[in-house]
Amino acid sequence: MHTTTHIGLLVIFGVVLLPVYVMFAGWLVGRPREYRTVALTVGYMIGFTVLIVAGLAVTGLVISLITTV
Amino acid sequence: MSLDGKTGADRVLQPLTSATKGHFVLLALLALGTLWMLFAWFVQLRGGLMHTTSLGDWGVSGGVPWGLYIGAFVWWIGIAHGGIAISAAVRVFKLERFAPIARIAEVLTVLALGMAATSIVFSLGRPDRIFNTIVQWPFTVHHSPLAWDIAVITLYLVLTLTYLTLSLRDEIYEIRDRLPYWLDPIYAVILIGYRPEESEKVEQLLWWLAVAILALVPLLSGGVVPWLFGLIAAQPGWFGAAAGPSMLIESLTSAMAFVVVTIAIFRFAYGWEDFIRDAIFRDLSKVLALLTLATLWFVVHDVLTGAYLAPHHVGDITATMVSLPFFWIAVLGLGAAFIYLVAQLLRPSLFSVGRLTIASAVIAISILNKKVMFIVEGLMHPSIPPLTNLYPAGFYFPNWVEWSLVLGTIVVVGLGFVVIGKIIPMVELEVVDDDETTPRMGDPPLTDDSSEDATRPDTEVN
Q1: From CA B367, how far away is CA B377, in angstroms rounded?
Q2: Are residues B208 and A66, on separate chains, in Cβ contact within 8 Å?
Q3: Interchain pair A56, B130: CB under 8 A
């Protein structure tokens, strides 16, 4: 294992996601403190993520039909 | 209320409820362009990437594996940042003057990110395996900048879509009875769990979302995307710590230019001169001038460090770069546009939205050109064995399939705007109805008068 190049988790979870951690903290502790809308927003985020991942799966599937037929 | 009895909201909602002949003509042309792109993609999928395009493999064909598609990918990523960054800046830094263009800018980001991802798919030899990038992500994230890239682009798209959805909820709720009923399923998704009393909390959520999005701009366009290239030591044109800042500036420049072109088209198409006033274009032109200058400044750095006693492999790539007509076309485009931007700032009579739009289009295209050259030259001149011995310097020029696909992405963005413009209001209704400084149709024009800017309360603050 090449240790100097295995820094991906640090890059993603330690640096790039910092603004997202701050955003979540702001949502949770900022006023007005109301968690229902926060939960709804997180639901949207999860929904969009699922949509993107599923869209990628469908894209791959459709392309495989075109390339193999 | 305007002379023809229409409020600002009426005029912003008009595209949602009625369509002109021009709209259908534009829709048809864009749909035809999209069909042509799909045809070219079909040809590529059936024939195979290497066989159909001029993206040859290393060694045997003496070409490059990455070309126009990856250049377009980097270009679209940069453009995506300009849109949402303007919208986020309106919220975080209270740049209310730009509020009328915020929604258009947000939609541009969503479309541009989509086209960035599409450009990647175009560039894959086996695009049917695209889902493997997700399946293998837990194993590749440790060492692959490509995996970081996938994560951050997905994150950025999710944040942007969430931002757009949240910012629409109040508005859609208020005007739902005026919206096309056949689009109800879309509005129902936007309004899931809606309660009128949520507005204050939603505003707070949006503020923090805007902060995160703004912070992610340098981390993506100046970080993860440049790291795809800057971390690779085998390519002298790519490797280096300056790749991040240089690419960030280029990205912001092309983004700002694309935003100008987009809002100019909207303003022209819908006659929104009184919402999207000349003052907005003047302010954007100042930012664009500064960014274009910074882009040219990085070009000077590139050339000087590559030409002055550089290691031979860096010297080679620089010599090739300055010998290519495309390099000088890009420099000429950026330089000419910069001269115009400065001239119209010094002499306001030279300003016109049409000229600014042309200058912005030239800047955006010049940066696409520059990005493609950056990708190609880096691959043509590797400096570390065994890559150095694989092949002699090759040749690359995109063929009709590549041009069709990349130009097609621009057409799809146009089509996306035409379609989305029929679903949601493209200017926030709050801006056109509540802003007392916004004149209605028939009021005396406030355009083309820079002295008016000085009297506006928001000018000095921002």
Answers
A1: 15
A2: no
A3: yes
Instruction: Please give the model's pTM, rounded to 2 decimal places.
Output: 0.89
Q: Are B148 and A17 a contacting pair at CB < 8 A?
A: no
Nearest to B107 by CA among B424, B429, B357: B424
Q: Kindly provide the ipTM of the predicted complex, given to two decimals.
A: 0.94
SS3 content of chain B, % helix, strand, coil (to 5): 75, 0, 25
Q: What is the pLDDT along chain B (462 residues), one digit of tens a residue?
A: 454 667 778 888 888 888 888 889 999 999 999 999 999 999 999 988 888 887 866 655 567 888 899 999 999 999 998 788 888 888 888 888 888 999 999 999 999 999 999 999 999 888 888 899 899 999 999 888 889 989 999 999 999 999 999 999 999 999 998 888 889 999 999 999 999 999 999 999 999 999 999 999 999 888 888 888 888 877 777 888 888 899 999 999 999 999 999 999 999 988 888 889 999 999 999 999 999 999 999 999 988 988 888 887 788 888 888 888 889 999 999 999 999 999 999 999 999 999 999 999 999 999 999 999 888 888 877 777 766 666 666 678 888 999 999 999 999 999 999 999 999 999 888 877 654 444 433 344 444 444 444 333 333 332
CATH superfamily of B8-461: Formate dehydrogenase/DMSO reductase domain (1.20.1630.10)
Buried b (16+ CB within 10 A) or exposed e, B174-213: ebeeebeeeeeeebeebbeebeeebeebbebbbbbbbbbb
Rounded to a whole number of angstroms, the distance from the CA of B245 to the nearest CA of chain A is 16
CA of A50 to nearest chain B CA: how many angstroms apart? 10
Name the residue ranges covered by the structural domains of chain A.
Answer: 1-33, 35-69
